[in-house]
Amino acid sequence: TGEAEAARVAMGGSASLLPREVLGEYQELTFLTKQEILLAYKRFSELLPKEERENACSVRVPKSQILTLPELRANPFRHRICRVFSTSQDGDDSMSFEDFLDMLSVFSDSATSEIKSHYAFRIFDFDDDGTLDRKDLEKLVDCLTGQGEESQLSNAEMEQLIQNILEESDIDKDGTINLSEFQHVISRSPDFARYNVPQ
């Protein structure tokens, strides 16, 4: 069919296509178009050794390979992004094709700001305890400012900045920011919609 032919062309002439029913399912479960899913499959396959590419849907790509993607290479949260989207049971942050699709879907322009802010919260929650506390905020600031000598904030500057963030965001004044507080702040920040890993 024409669609299969278009898919084959999109896959760079490779015969290893995603079955149409799987493609339809991925389209329903993500914010991605069929074309974007096929492109994602091609990119994911290319991260695998040649002999594993035929089985791209059933193998995992190591974190070291995921980090070679241009979108992640310069992202200060790249390690956290791998941790949050990986379903690996081994804690090695490797990704399956479905993990990879989830990541691309959340960072696509079509994802809702609610979904984006939910995942941003998880990425910023460095200790995975469901709240952003002072330690998480310190790490967040470190990631954003870079950890080089010249760019590092003094203790007093860091303390003042965290105090400002909490005053702005910690509605119930318990010293931490929960997901709904985070989403409330984000909803008032139109710039957040551009929090994106570029495609």
Would you give an account of this structure?
This protein has two domains: 88 residues, Recoverin, domain 1, CATH 1.10.238; 77 residues, EF-hand (Recoverin, domain 1), CATH 1.10.238. The chain has eleven helices and no strands. It is globular and about 55 Å long. Helix content is 53%, strand content 0%. Helix 3 crosses helix 7 and helix 8 crosses helix 11. By secondary structure, it is an all-alpha fold.
Order of helices and strands: HHHHHHHHHHH
- Per CATH, the superfamily of the largest domain is EF-hand
Envelope shape = globular
In the predicted model, the low-confidence regions spanning at least 5 consecutive residues are 11-15
Strand pairing plus helix content: what structural class? mainly alpha
- Overall strand count: 0
Largest sheet: none
The helix fraction, in percent, is: 40-55%
- Count the domains: 2
Mean pLDDT: 88
Distance between the termini: 29 Å
CATH fold descriptor of the largest domain = Recoverin, domain 1
Residue share in β-strands: under 5%
What radius of gyration results from the CA coordinates?
19 Å
CATH arch. level architecture of the largest domain: Orthogonal Bundle
* SS summary, helix count: 11
